[in-house]
Specification:
mainly alpha; AhpD-like
């Protein structure tokens, strides 16, 4: 399939916006392997093929095993993630899935926030939320920027 008309280049057409998004990304969680797992999970949910590929490579570079990378697709059924990673993945799902995002303040979501707050004390929780917010924005930007529909 050919190029889709009307697509844009974020970096070329809005370098200030692109730099601002890069700044948001730098505010993310400093644990590189954990950040790549979170980014990969969100990218899978958002069906951003470019970002799935990029964060698969990033996770491998950070030392994440291929089994764990594959398990991000269905992490709840896997025993390959520790409690801290499971807390991060649950929060990623909550914030990334737009059908649950509108309910993120509901009392039913409180356990996800409570577990995440316990696993990520102090500024670490905020850094994790920045990581999740940034990758969701990058996913949407990369999807909007796509130049063809055949992936």
């Amino acid at each position: 399939m050919g190029a889709v008309s009307g697509r844009i280049s974020m970096k070329a057409q809005s370098p200030d916006g692109y730099r601002a998004l890069a700044g948001l990304t730098r505010a993310g969680h400093p644990d590189h392997a954990l950040a790549e797992i979170v980014k990969l999970r969100a990218s899978r949910i958002n069906n951003c093929r470019y970002c799935v590929d990029a964060h698969t490579a990033g996770a491998q570079k950070a030392g994440v095993t291929d089994d764990r990378i594959a398990a991000t697709a269905d992490w709840q059924a896997s025993d390959l993630f520790d409690e801290r990673e499971r807390a991060a993945l649950a929060l990623t799902d909550l914030i990334t899935r737009t059908d649950t995002l509108s309910h993120a303040e509901d009392s039913a979501a409180a356990p996800v926030w409570d577990v995440a707050a316990e696993a990520f004390p102090g500024d670490e929780l905020v850094q994790l939320v920045f990581t999740i917010a940034a990758i969701n924005t990058w996913n949407r930007m990369m999807i909007a920027e796509a130049v063809s529909t055949d992936g």
